[in-house]
Amino acid sequence: MKPNVSNGAIYRKVMTFSIRRFFICLLFLVMLGLLAGGGFLFSDKMFDWKGSGLVGMGVGTVIAIVLIAILSHFFMYIIKAGMIAVIMKSVTEDKIPDNCWETGKAMVKERFVTVAVYYAATGLIKGLFQELGHLISKVGEAVGGDSGSAVGGAISIVINTIVEYLCDCCLGYVFYRKDKGAFKATCEGAVIFFKHGKTFLKNMGRIFGMGLASLIAIGGAFFGIIYAILTQFSGPISKLSAEIGELQSTENSKKWIDILSNPTYLTIAFAVIGAIILWSIVHGTFIKPFVMVGVMRNYMSTAVENIPEESEFGILEKNCKKFDKLKGKYENELS
């Protein structure tokens, strides 16, 4: 039977999470740029030893990464988990909550009383599904022969994308089974995949198609914009490339130092890195949630009709060699 609430309607309503995430990510980027650039300028003017600006930029970057990691740990999780909770609720009840933001926050606080419990649950989920990714990647390397590493690497990218969506679906199922402990609910969610995996793979073509299209279109546009902006700062880039050229090199690093000591290539490198970062923000914020609604609907429609018994947890031992270790680590924490 056709649902009353469309995927598009759900996506538009959960946009409140995406907008918040987008502005926080922009704030993080500004923080990174200011600390890295400020570190370079400060060290370059304050110290006269070789490579001082490069060292200052490195210190500023490290400080920015640490601050971003801390802030993300305590604030960003509620945006991701809240969106997943609301998507799950919308597809299972065929009704969108009136206030998605408040509903999502309430569901997260009810299910995960502390930040530590949330990360314990997501750690267990990733542990169960990453084993699947490692196994399939090894098979790809074995089949690939002399080019096995390349084959394995390509398969690994594909599998990691699948695993990321599976983890989100499993987290949605943990919200759905709110009357059960998070550990048991997580195990049930994993069992559902291992029993009905073929059903969920129907969405994979759309996942990769939209991902590739957005990378080419959005990433390409950002590269052009960033490159054009960076060409207006040829002086600082030339100075930085000169400092890179003065670095001592080993045989392995000499090639990269030679490349990045050229201002044009350094500008291109910065543009590529910036484009990938901005694409990942835009894709993860606005494109992925749309795909996630369809994947979650597919997963939950199977899950609600096939809730596993605890006796079926043996399938996890078969498909995840680390299950006993994960059980010992998380069972008490998530019971």
Which sheet architecture does the biggest sheet show? none
H/E element order = HHHHHHHHHHHHH
- What is the averaged pLDDT score? 84
Structural class by sheet pairing and helices: mainly alpha
> Treating each run of at least 4 consecutive H or I residues as one helix, how many helices?
13
Spans with pLDDT under 50 lasting ≥5 residues?
none
Approximately what portion of the residues adopt beta-strand conformation? Answer: under 5%
Helix share bin: over 70%
Instruction: Tell how many strands the DSSP assignment holds.
Output: 0
Overall morphology: elongated
**Radius of gyration over alpha carbons?**
23 Å
Distance between the termini: 36 Å
How would you characterize this protein structure?
This protein has helices at residues 7-13, 15-46, 52-93, 100-111, 115-144, 148-176, 182-200, 204-230, 234-245, 251-260, 263-303, 314-319, 323-334. It has 335 residues and is an all-alpha fold. α5 (115-144) packs antiparallel against α6 (148-176). It is elongated. It starts with 6 loop residues before the first helix and ends with a helix. The model has no long low-confidence stretch (mean pLDDT 84).
Please give a quick description of this structure.
This protein has 13 helices and no strands. By secondary structure, the protein is mostly helical.
Topology:
Layout: H1 7-13, H2 15-46, H3 52-93, H4 100-111, H5 115-144, H6 148-176, H7 182-200, H8 204-230, H9 234-245, H10 251-260, H11 263-303, H12 314-319, H13 323-334
